[in-house]
Specification:
alpha+beta
Amino acid sequence: MKKIINHAITLWMIPFWTLILDCGFVSHKQHRAIRSAEVYNTAEYGFSQGIITDSPKTIYLSGIVGWNKKRGLPDPNRFETQTIQIFENLKLLLKSENATLDDVLRLEVFIVGIDTNKLKEYSKISAQFFNSGHKPASTVIGVEALSREGLLIEIQATASIR
């Protein structure tokens, strides 16, 4: 009899804790916005530079463009310059959460007016930054335009901290 009562209490508690967790009384999903003062601010555009979760610790970065800290394009017409700036911004955002390029799991790359030359240039620059042997999963998509005039490439990234 005692065993049956204990089993009944245990079965009752499972839906109880599920209800408590799902109603938000106790958060089982901890996440917060990422903000690096070394990279341009995105808050006024209505999105975070990224989000980090605690279980597992994962970073989801919004599209990163080739802007410097003051939201200027070092050279608006140079695909190579913008791509390098994006990877530098990516490194800074990851560093703000004690992560590195080796923690990047996936990249989504959007290139305006994609052609063979831009794809080769992107691949060369990407290989220079991901030079430890680690290569994240990646998708490259050609697009007609990005959110601001002069932007030629944008990269989203997902990383997991060990």
